[in-house]
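Handout, page 2. Input:
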Amino acid sequence: MINFQDFLYILRWLLGFLLIGIIFLPFSSYLFKDFRDKGYIFSKILGLAIVSYSLFILGLIKIIKFSEASVFLILIIFLAINYFKNVKNVFLILKKNYKIILFEEALFFVCLFIWSLIRSNLPEINGLEKFMDFGFLNSILRSEYFPPKDMWYTPLAINYYYFGHLITAVVTKLTFIPSFISYNLMI
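Output:
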């Protein structure tokens, strides 16, 4: 059962997604200008992918370390890029489409809450590839640069695809949620 602290974690996770969605609304509204919501629903997905990939590339060539500060720095850079000439356009989109945007946010919250309620009944990390997933998430969170160290062969890098884990690590650093909680939110 979800207690109050777990509910606060869910809200922080949701607010992290909301922040990314608002930052990337100008970009998604440009790509999906014919959609009724101007692509608001896709702004979170696009934003997460772009921010995660940017951090991956910059960490791979060792320009910036993977940290909370670098996540916020990348978000601020994309905020400046996306809102440079589009501030009035974004407010117009939000004003004109607020009903569908509120519906989409409510639907996202309800689905996240229900799935978190289901997951809270068995939050243990056991079975299938869950140990590996949790290990990858923690390896990414501990690493300064990419590729992260493999948790079984520590001197070596992870020799497996881990971009989904990286996306979770980005949201984990953005929301300051412990990895054992964000792992369950990832699922």
